[in-house]
## 1
Amino acid sequence: MTVQLVVLVVLLLTKSVISQSNTSVTYADIPNHCRGSLPTSNFIRNRNSSLDELVMQLSSTRVLSARAQNITGGDPVFAQAQCRNYLSVDQCVECINEGIFNLVKCRVGNSAYVFLDDCSVRYEAFSSFYNDPNVNEEGAGPGFSICSNVSASQTLSNNTRDIVDDFISDIRDATPKRSNLYVASLRRITNENATMYAMAQCAANINKAICQACMDTANIKLKACLPSREGKYFDLACFAKYSETSFFNDNQTMDITSILKGDHLSKVAIVAGAIGGLVFLLLTIVLCFFRRRKNSKKTEQEDSKGTLNYNYEDLRIATNNFSEENILGKGGFGDVYKATIDEKNVVAVKKLQVQDVRAKEEFENEVTLISNVHHRNLLRLLGWSSEGSDLLLVLEYMANGSLDHFLWGSKRGTLDWNQRYEIILGIAKGLAHLHSEYHVKIIHRDIKSSNILLSDDFKAKIADFGLARFQPEDATHVNTKFAGTLGYAPPEYALRGVLSDKVDTYSFGIVVLEIISGRRCTDMNCDRPSMEYLLEHAWKLYEKKIHIKLTDETLDLNESQQERVMKITEIALLCTQSPAAKRPTMSEVVLMLQEDQSLGKIQLTRPTFVNNQNRRVHIGPSKINIGVSHV
Ligand SMILES: *[C@@H]1O[C@H](CO)[C@@H](O)[C@H](O)[C@H]1NC(C)=O
Ligand SMILES: *[C@@H]1O[C@H](CO)[C@@H](O)[C@H](O)[C@H]1NC(C)=O
Ligand SMILES: *[C@@H]1O[C@H](CO)[C@@H](O)[C@H](O)[C@H]1NC(C)=O
Ligand SMILES: *[C@@H]1O[C@H](CO)[C@@H](O)[C@H](O)[C@H]1NC(C)=O
Ligand SMILES: *[C@@H]1O[C@H](CO)[C@@H](O)[C@H](O)[C@H]1NC(C)=O
Ligand SMILES: *[C@@H]1O[C@H](CO)[C@@H](O)[C@H](O)[C@H]1NC(C)=O
Ligand SMILES: *[C@@H]1O[C@H](CO)[C@@H](O)[C@H](O)[C@H]1NC(C)=O
């Protein structure tokens, strides 16, 4: 008996502009939203704990946005806090505390959010708002604007108004182009001897399309504020503001025209590409410039993030001139070599085969991005080199090698069930981190058993994340957007190139089936008459409720372990559902694995997959009722 209370508690915050010069936090007259169904007292406890956790994360990890959740007792709470990037961490914590102070007054609903000028906080009983802030909202969310209310004599002149109008359009266009979805800039208005400040920020980790859509609305609402000297737009997916009063330091602004010009330049490049001959010239110039820049750089310099820029020569020596004996593995991205640096540190060096100059240019950006990812289930990037014609990545060395060797390779049968379970959970946690905990969403695109490395204590470490775009495109494959491995890639991605975090969920499901069965996903099951792919085989056993038979025969399971294996097989099948929307997010998978939940009311449907002829396969009905008729 759930009481559907839809209550909108409007708590007006008193406007408190903190005027000390050491802080710029301002609070607007913004309503709190508190609604949904009546929360249990357990939900309220979980909420309080999640909100505390947000503040703890911000202040301990010195970041400006955080997510926290608590699912104790089956009353899940998912919370998110985000500050504007111009704040210091201390100002951020102050703002978030102010938001939480107001949020905890929400006692009649299980869904609440608060908008302040400098930050926002939100919690829900579900996690999908992390990726799509407007989920469950009718229309495009509760967006509203606040315009400063000044007398007519103080409004902007027509001329200035046009300048500000253009400025707001530029902010709209630039924000989704930035990887952090944040822009702050200023524009001098000479004839009025004034400066206009503007910024916009989309919700952390959402995709560019959602950000763009929100900025389109923000653009209209802010322009409707003109000729006021200040306007603000609040929405679940974005915040935007312009003001004549500075609300960030001049040195925190960025050159917006260069962000927009970047876009313009790439269009020029495409045109040049069509002309053909020009391309070569253009690339040569870019390459020369790139080389020159590299040479001027000191070798082995440590950047601010602690990643080393290695000297190519040192790595050549460390890998014994990239000798065959040092090869640890060959992969789509290039070969991996064992290297000994300074006669003591053993590392792995991955040599990327990148012919494309453009890809090489992107390399530095990508490396900076992935070198900041730290998680115990993700392989650490220790350094890199982009001198000469090769791109080299220096990675943690994992003596145990990759998971596939333990499932069907030389070390087959050496992993017991507990180790396998820890590996499954570790992969899920690593992916959840890439998708929703790191400030930029990273989709791996190529999850497979040979990309999972094992540490000395058999913990999973995901390799090759953030590198999919450097993979050479498979010329035999019609879809150039596809950079994955058949057998592990879901149909919508393998056939149409549709990319989302659910691509990784699908591949994860396949890897779990491999871990449970000790079988490779694409191997036909030759010892049976029925020639089936692993997913097909698993599904047919599941339909007959005998999916325990999928288990690797080298495993010796007790009764409770058998039950566990069956539940995890069901989770794996849930991960391989189509369409993608039916698949859980990786954060949800982590919870399911930890809680040992059964799927409950979720109905699984027959999965589809792509076979090695590049065809989508719909698994046919199994002959559940026929029993032993086919000898
Ligand atoms: C900010 O300045 C005020 C005085 O103007 C001072 O009392 C306060 O401690 C300062 N706060 C911080 C965080 O420095
Ligand atoms: C949650 O926090 C609010 C504010 O601190 C407090 O009033 C309330 O008692 C807390 N509730 C629980 C169940 O801890
Ligand atoms: C979750 O919340 C409960 C209170 O409901 C608290 O006792 C527990 O420590 C919290 N768990 C985590 C991991 O924060
Ligand atoms: C702001 O607007 C309100 C009505 O919305 C009006 O009563 C008030 O005088 C205005 N204030 C100024 C400073 O213009
Ligand atoms: C500003 O533009 C409005 C119409 O857009 C016009 O009515 C007004 O006269 C203009 N003011 C000046 C000072 O040009
Ligand atoms: C512009 O404004 C600044 C301060 O607001 C003032 O110092 C300066 O003299 C002004 N310049 C002109 C040309 O009015
Ligand atoms: C930016 O300016 C502020 C004050 O104007 C100063 O305290 C701060 O150090 C500057 N930051 C940088 C990175 O230059």
Note: The two ends are 51 Å apart (CA to CA).
## 2
Amino acid sequence: MFYHAKKNWELPSSAVTPERVFLNRRETLLGLGASLIPLGAYAEEAIKTADLYPAKLNETYKLDRPVTPEKINQTYNNFYEYTTDKRVNADMLRIRPWTVTVGGMVEKEKTWDIDDLIRTIGVEERLYRHRCVEAWSMAIPWSGFPLRTLVEQAKPLSSAKYVRFETFLDKKMAPGQRSFMAWPYVESLTMAEATNDLAFIATGAYGKPISKVQGAPIRLATPWKYGFKSIKSIVKISFVDKMPETFWANTGPTEYGFWANVNPDVPHPRWSQASETDLTTGSRRPTLLYNGYGEQVAALYKGLEKQPLFM
Ligand SMILES: Nc1nc2c(c(=O)[nH]1)N[C@H]1C(S)=C(S)[C@@H](COP(=O)(O)O)O[C@H]1N2
Ligand SMILES: [Mo]
């Protein structure tokens, strides 16, 4: 057990706020902008897998730095469905009920209830570094399961070459999706990347179910790549034979490549990647090739170093 957090998350959000406050708040909200507030938001179902956290720590994945305090992690995020600011409020994201469809080139497509999926596969805790292309980094205690387990479960056909991930699309639930960007958010990995040990599906963090700002109820964590590959709030996972178009490749084609591997020697077109700000301490540290995970992943990229937009 790594974290001993208070178990507030087992209760629906209406239950953790004293009734009086809750009623006042709802009146205020209804008065101020009723059309923007989903009325059902306060009746969100409880998380049926909350009992699985904190999960047992998998000691294989060691950090070279302290875990970032939860408070810093929860107040500095990228979640463009809500805002382009770092202070994200994703309270409107409705995370239960939630389904994930696993399909495309598979033996049989399946739509999972999120809690059935989590309970079927089970969860473990892993401490991972996290490096954004904007040159800041954290260290996060994720809980979840290896992506490989889900791939094996899905039984992809041998013709499948890529895994494609898609975030929900709902302009009411996510005001940021009213912007010009190429919604919904899409990301992708090759089959070899997706079945690597490090590729992780996070359903929890800091010893409890993952929070809304972190991309509840299910997001990707690929710590050797820039953070934009780690897609949040996934609703669809498909096996495909062509390299998918991704959100950032469509929104900023000259700046964001498919591989997006952390590399101090390949600058972003507008800034250097040689060093990063460690948000735990606020100080700069040198960027590590593959974010320090070369031992696990370098073999995946043999011969690919000269690809355009390789990072
Ligand atoms: N759906 C979705 N996924 C997303 C993003 C986003 O805006 N929308 N931002 C990405 C970026 S740029 C980063 S750095 C990480 C941030 O994850 P964090 O807020 O948990 O640190 O999520 C990634 N996944
Ligand atoms: Mo990022």
Note: The chain has one domain: 46-301.
## 3
Amino acid sequence: MFGIRVPHPWQQETPVTPEEIFLNRRRFLTQLGSAGAGASFSIFGFGGREAAPSVERDLSGIPLNPAFSDPERPLTEEIVAARHNNFYEFGSGKRIWRGAQAVPTDPWTVEITGLVRQPQKLGLEDLFGFPLEERIYRFRCVEAWAMVVPWLGFPMRLLLEQVDPLPEAKFVRFTSFYDRDIMYGPIWPPNLPWPYTEGLRIEEMANPLAFFALGIYGKPLPKQHGAPIRMVLPWKYGFKGGKSIVKIEFLAEQPATFWNTLAPDEYGFEANVDPTVPHPRWSQAQETLIGFGSRSHWQTVPTLPYNGYGEYVAHLYG
Ligand SMILES: Nc1nc2c(c(=O)[nH]1)N[C@H]1C(S)=C(S)[C@@H](COP(=O)(O)O)O[C@H]1N2
Ligand SMILES: [Mo]
């Protein structure tokens, strides 16, 4: 649940936008259990439906990949996606977007190391130099909320080709940016295994669905979505998609990852979306479409195996 929070000093740094005032007011009303409760969350009224992009890049005119143009569900509203985030470095609530503005995204370097013939360091120019495309993907968090968003980026397999992994490379570890000075988030439990890391089998990274996003809704990623580069793996639970990636390592053995280290029974390494396997604490049979329906009762739909992407990936797990 959202709480009414006293702003921290860092929250003063970003000017408050009209839609934010509106959202806070609306939330306040909802919490009073009065006018807001039954109304549609999708009506914002102020026209401010955009989120600030992180880096200056013109991403207009990037082609939409026709294979991923029809998710058979309506798009999530941009501002809804940009105000409902998981980025535990900034806290365990969903409203971390202001805190995330502290990530220093420009300049940026992604270091690619380990079992590859061509280790390299990629800056923003290199990343934005990949042939970019737009893909509309469904997205399913392990917490049973879901969205549909248009990402801009490039397939991970293009990077694989460029770095030329050695035959011994079987796994890949992705490390997120971490700086304790700006990332104050959860103090409990202590000794969380920062930085946030995630991992894939190399065949999973080579799958055509596996994607690096640099943008969303036609613009560079807002920082809360994991600027300047984040992983997007639409057949897996959302936590597999690390944000603000700074390091990619090719390994012989399966790496330890953040959530899998913390709670292996709840967050497997593979973590494919599967409605038949409940999380130990809740069902995975259904999912809630953020922003649709009323604020108090977001619309719920059935969850599909592999989040509906079985035709692309089921063979990896046969
Ligand atoms: N570095 C980092 N990456 C992360 C997370 C995180 O806490 N830290 N949360 C994950 C989870 S649980 C989800 S559901 C998605 C949320 O992405 P979004 O906020 O862009 O919707 O980011 C994933 N990537
Ligand atoms: Mo998640």
Note: The domain at 9-317 is CATH 3.90.420.10 (Sulfite Oxidase; Chain A, domain 2).
## 4
Amino acid sequence: MANEFAPCTEAQKQAVLERLAAIRQKIAAACQDSGRSESEVTLMAVTKTVSPELINLAVDAGVTTLGENRVQEYLSKRDAYRADAEVQFIGHLQTNKVKQIIDKVTLIHSVDSLHLAEAISKAAEKQGIVMPVLLEVNIGGEASKSGVSPDELPALLDAVQKLPAVRADGLMTIPPPMTDEAEQIRVFTQMKQLFDSLRQSVPMQVLSMGMSGDYEAAVRCGATIVRIGSALFGARSYPPKNEG
Ligand SMILES: *Cc1c(COP(=O)(O)O)cnc(C)c1O
């Protein structure tokens, strides 16, 4: 796949740099509004369908963290990535693909079942590492979305903590698309409260929420990682295959 990408035009590159600057300003403003320090928020560049050339341009411009959501796409592109970018996995992960990425990512955002956590723990043990993970919460309660309900979360967290080679570092959510800002704030506040209540007994630091359409609200509500794709790289054109 890496070589299926046409070289980028200067105009495309310029557009990415301009969007990146605008996103940074908005994150800074949201931090200021909510009395947070900018250093608390990581801007993750979500790379699906994006050429390595543009991804590396974002890294050159100071983006430290890349978000991958398809195993095959990531494996086909990673050799072309700048080696110093930190790569995290954010997509739905099938247990049989865990071993393909376990030694190539620093955080898995999308643990939505004990079954998956067990597979990650097993693969991590084989590598002699402990894999940090986030538990994915279906905060909107949509049947089509992955993630556990807030009610199921304490039991999953308990069980994950008993596994030898995973460490629960926090929570992640993909809420339903919301254009209304008050609605965004309501949902992200719910996530933050859930996060804070669990943190009374488990030391977790990472709250991964906010995408292109709602990251400012997410930052105001306490997100520590915002995952941004289209607002940075432009609209995606999907390849025919959609694999996890
Ligand atoms: C694609 C994707 C994003 C980024 O979506 P945009 O709306 O383009 O910013 C964030 N998180 C996950 C899990 C994704 O799959």
Note: The chain has a mean pLDDT of 94.
